[in-house]
Structure formats: structure tokens, C-alpha cells
Amino acid sequence: MGRFLILGKEERQKYLFRMLCGRGQTVTYCDSWLDGGYDAVMLPVGKSARYLEQIADKLQAGEYVFGCNFPEEIIEQKRRQGIFLWIT
């Protein structure tokens, strides 16, 4: 079982929230960062880079972040810190 943070208000985010909750996962769904030590953070497709900019300093080693349009230099920087950015 994982701990998920879903950021944003896109329909995809709402669907993902319902799907994960339906499978018994621990999910926080909001529009801004909440401290909590997550296994995975899901960013909205159209605004991934903007959200990543806002939360980059709050991410912890071992967290996975899913989104798109991440700058390559940020991907490498976070990877060296043990944070994994996955482009979907």
C-alpha cells in the first residue's frame, strides 16, 4: 500500500483520486503541497512544470513524481537527491 499526493484540479486528477481510493490506497487530493512523506506525487499533465517548480524544495528522497514537461536539469538534480521524476 502506498501514500499518494495528487495535485491539481484536472478531470484526470479527480479520476485518479477515485480510482486509488477505490483500491484502498491512502490518497491526499488538493491543489497545493501538504507535508506528509509520500510514496508518489501526481502532477496535472498541463501544469506539471509549474507545480514542480512550487514543490521542488519540499520533495524528499525516495519519492516518485509523475507529470510531464520536466526540465532535464531538474530531473538529473532530483535524481541525485534520490527523488525520481517520471514523465508520463
Walkthrough of the structure:
This protein is of the alpha/beta class. 33% of the residues lie in helices and 24% in strands. It is built from 3 helices and 5 strands. Strand 4, helix 3 and strand 5 form a beta-alpha-beta unit. The longest helix has 12 residues. The protein starts with a strand and ends with a strand.
Counting DSSP H or I runs of 4 or more residues, the number of helices is 3
N-to-C CA distance: 21 Å
**Care to count the β-strands?**
5
Q: Any idea what the shape is?
A: globular
Order of helices and strands: EHEEHEHE
Radius of gyration: 12 Å
Which terms would index this structure?
single chain; 88 residues; alpha/beta; 33% helix; globular
What is the strand and helix layout of this fold?
Elements: E1 3-7, H1 11-22, E2 26-30, E3 40-42, H2 48-55, E4 64-67, H3 72-80, E5 84-87
Parallel strand pairs: 1-2, 1-3, 3-4, 4-5
Nutshell version of this structure?
This protein is α/β, with parallel strands linked by helices and 88 residues long. It has helices spanning 11-22, 48-55, 72-80, and strands at 3-7, 26-30, 40-42, 64-67, 84-87.
